[in-house]
From TrEMBL:
CDD domains: ABC_Mj1267_LivG_branched. It comes from Patulibacter brassicae. SMART domains: AAA. Residues 24-261 form the ABC transporter domain. This is Urea ABC transporter ATP-binding protein UrtD. Keywords: ATP-binding, Nucleotide-binding, Transport. PROSITE patterns: ABC_TRANSPORTER_2 (PS50893).
């Protein structure tokens, strides 16, 4: 694969949502912090092999929901079933070993180490100490695959800290892929990226979904329209619309008013503010 392309062409096909069964089932989820109800009675499913977007305004509870799935936060009520295993009550490391991987808004990489070394460390997390201490020659197959899929093979020996912003995000996704997750949670993966980087990230996400379910927390509506199979909308800690198609979300007047319309109003406010500044300067 050339360094220009992150993943093979996957086209714009969308999977049949009735074919796979849910690998993630969330029921009655609620959590409060010091009297503040962050999530209330949240239900939704994510099916095997789909790209499922979780969207909503700031403060809707998206990151809190991901924190609960990954064991960082314990809910007050409800259930999180991952492939029929209850995740509530498990420690974070146990949930990782069950096959759940997560990226963060700011890429978490070892900046002083090379790209390949970062991937190699990530690939080692399941290995027993005896195998870690054994001298090894060459590149692990899972590391070589991650370098190829992410388009980072030409930068394998480069320090991770020298990578561009988008490349660091791809490296973190590659590190997760070496661990063979069955559910991958991505928190605003295209924040701060150029249009070309967003497209390449979307291609990577859809390629990854061939082997696992991907749950994406995102604000970028164009990115959602281009790469989502299904969408769940949160607002003020509650599900506004669950397990919907992109077309259903775009056509829903309540979603338009609460989320999409609000984003438009925010952009208009910024534009009016900029225009006002120019008039004052004039």
């Amino acid at each position: 694969m050339s360094s220009d392309t992150i993943a093979p062409e996957v086209g714009d096909e969308r999977r049949d949502p009735t074919a796979p069964w849910p690998i993630l089932r969330i029921r009655g989820l609620g959590v409060s912090f010091g009297g503040f109800q962050a999530l209330t009675d949240v239900d939704f499913d994510a099916r095997k092999g789909e790209v499922h977007f979780l969207i909503g305004p700031n403060g809707a509870g998206k990151t809190t929901l991901v924190d609960i799935i990954t064991g960082l936060t314990r809910p007050t009520t409800g259930s999180v079933l991952f492939d029929d295993v209850e995740l509530v009550g498990h420690k974070e490391h146990r949930i990782v070993h069950l096959g759940v991987g997560r990226s963060f808004q700011a890429a978490t990489v070892f900046e002083a180490l090379s790209v390949e070394e970062n991937l190699d460390i990530a690939a080692s997390f399941r290995l027993p100490l005896r195998r870690l201490l054994r001298q090894r020659r060459g590149t692990r197959p899972e590391v070589a695959e991650a370098l190829e899929v992410t388009g980072l093979a030409p930068y394998a020996d480069r320090p991770a800290g020298a990578l561009a912003h988008g490349q660091k995000q791809w490296l973190e996704i590659g590190m997760l892929l070496t661990q063979k997750p069955r559910l991958l949670l991505l928190d605003e993966p295209v924040a701060g990226m150029s249009p070309d980087e967003r497209t390449r990230t979307g291609e990577l996400v859809r390629y990854v979904a061939r082997d696992c379910t991907v749950l994406v927390v995102e604000h970028d509506m164009d990115f959602m329209r281009r790469f989502a199979d299904r969408v769940t909308v949160l607002h003020e800690g509650k599900v506004l619309k669950a397990d919907a198609t992109v077309a259903e979300v775009q056509a829903d007047p309540v979603v338009q008013e609460v989320y999409i319309g609000r984003a438009k109003d925010d952009r208009n406010s910024v534009s009016r503010g900029a225009a006002g500044d120019e008039e004052e300067q004039a």
